[in-house]
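chain below, 272 aa
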Amino acid sequence: MHVYGLIGNPVGHSLSPPMHEAAYRELDMDARYVTFEPAPDDVARALDGAAALGIDGLNVTIPFKQDVLEHVDPDDLAARIGAVNTVDFSTSPPRGYNTDAAGVRRAFEHHGVPLAGAEAVVVGAGGAGRAVAITLAEACEAVHVANRTVERAAELAADVRAGDPDATVTAGGLDTLGDRVPAADLLVNATSVGMEEDATPVPAALLHADLAVLDAVYSPIETRLLRTAAEAGATTIDGAWMLLFQGVAAFERWTGRDAPVGAMNDALRSRL
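prediction:
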């Protein structure tokens, strides 16, 4: 039996187990997906234990995404993002990846939204914003990062340019959305705004029909941002698609097989 899993603290809320277990059933694989909740300072021992027990792969969630970097061999993308969310134990030391980037890219692709030549606006400069900005900077014509704290947006933009000198990345405060969103092709909310309250980080008046809007928030599945974007005629992509495709990328990384996307999506949405 192949064993995969998730480490985080807490992990009881995670939607990864039903999504991956659905894939194993669909492909008739002898595999299981389990969760582990080590203490915050025990991530190194947890990884050593997983390797010793023959676990094939682990997903990583808060608060360990940055800590894991020190205990694996990260690929270039994970190193640039500064976080690992997928560990492959088939090598020694284990290899670390960040599939959040694939989640962003494949969510847009699944909805027929082209990235090449697009101008994108990313709201938020935290961990999710970093993965989104780096991903879109590689694929799009230009990216603008807008954040409540301007300094954090500027730091992220500088980091993206340092890793990709050909990228066109600018930064500013939330007050720059008024100039940037009306001319943009893509908009990504990489903040938690809309999760706990019926609020949006982008005024509805800025949204337009030529825009594709991805909200990384997946609970609720339909945020205020997505509702107002749909009313403006924009293409809307809920956060569950990003969650799905980061899981798909991890599954394919571990197994070398094409993921049963439909089965995984059904299992994920049945829990939302």
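DSSP finds ten helices and twelve strands in the chain. The mean pLDDT is 97.
thats it, cya
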